[in-house]
Specification:
alpha/beta; 25% strand; 4 helices; six-stranded mixed β-sheet; Nucleotidyltransferase, domain 5; 6 strands
């Protein structure tokens, strides 16, 4: 039995994982450099740290994830994150995933439909795509809120490896959440 079936719907999004307060960024010994300063438009904040890119199934279970520097765009990891998904799958994203090139590459190499929410100044989505977006976008937002309740935004780790270990543990806990 194949776990990831063709035609399944997945949701992709990213969330900030701050390492320290922004005012302490100059003294931080874990990370240094401008590539760790990121902006979260949804929360209207600038942060210093990492960005967790996450692909979830339609049930809210993590399927693939990547941890990249905060300044990197959402589209940076989209090819790698969607590479292992089954052909014929649909990936629903937010406005940060608008890219004709990446949509074409996902379709060509993996037969995956990357379906981002369109900006107001773009050609609007067809009604079927709008229905998919309305139905599945709240799933990833629920996953983000579960991770925030687990304390992902306030991880106190001395090293980056410790931070990654705590992130992996939180994602593993999400996998067991439906069975509890």
């Amino acid at each position: 039995m194949e776990v990831l079936q063709a035609g399944e719907v997945f949701i992709i999004d990213s969330m900030p994982v701050p390492v320290c307060k922004r005012v302490r960024a100059g003294r931080c010994r874990k990370l240094q450099g401008k590539r760790y300063f990121g902006r979260c438009a949804a929360k209207d904040e600038t942060f210093f740290g990492w960005r967790l890119h996450l692909v979830c199934s339609s049930d809210g279970l993590p399927v693939a994830f990547d941890i990249l520097p905060a300044a990197w765009h959402d589209l940076t990891g989209v090819q790698w994150l969607t590479a292992e998904l089954a052909a014929g799958s649909t990936v629903v994203g937010d406005k940060g995933y608008n890219s004709d090139l990446d949509e074409t590459l996902c379709d060509y190499y993996g037969a995956i439909l990357l379906l981002p929410k369109r900006r107001k100044n773009m050609v609007p989505d067809v009604p079927e795509h709008q229905a998919l977006l309305r139905r599945f976008r709240p799933v990833i937002e629920t996953v983000h809120s579960q991770l925030e309740k687990m304390g992902v935004r306030r991880l106190h780790a001395r090293t980056n490896l410790g931070l990654f270990l705590k992130l992996y543990a939180s994602l593993l806990a999400l996998l067991f959440n439906p069975f509890i």
